[in-house]
Amino acid sequence: MLDNVFIEPTEPAKYAVLWFHGLGADGNDFAPVGHELLRITQLPIRFVFPHAPERPVTLNNGYIMRAWYDIFGLDMKSREDRLGLDEISHKVDEMIKHQIKLGIPANKIFLGGFSQGGAVALYAGLRYTQPLGGIIGLSTYLPFKDHLLAEKHPENQHTPIFLAHGSRDPILPHEWAILSKEALEKTNHSVTFHSYPITHTVCSDEVETLGKWIKAIL
Length: 218
Prior knowledge:
two-stranded antiparallel sheet, 6 helices, 34% helix, 22% strand
């Protein structure tokens, strides 16, 4: 099991959001967003922010940093780390099972993340064997999008998906988000998509919209 940062609601949790940070960050990175989402939703949601393991990242000349999987390049033709994504997906499965043991059913659990963490949420969530409450990806992309039809699990065919991206993102271009959205829609997934005039970051309007989306689903 991964080390985690937790935010517990003031009353017993009925829902959970498992949130995965971006490359080189850690679980503390999005904790303030968790507090803000609790304020917006006014719902008893437990937020879990795991720390990625430390590993060498090819893109950064093998430098060891917190990363969910390896990154070989930042263009659409770069090789993707199937082994790394499958390994972290197994750990995501363990995290979901742990929340279920704590009394929160799978359909009340959301997977979400920013950048590389959003890619983890999409990859693992679409392949999970029980229906989840929702999948969230901010400033991210859909890994192995051309394999989605063959690899997705039917239990999450109708799981709501929230995507948001900065139109000025210099790291993961806005085009990647559009292509990811189109791949999901092509396979008949329900996608809510928002663009914001920001770089590779999040903004208050984005968090507000996300909070309202979560509240509407729950």
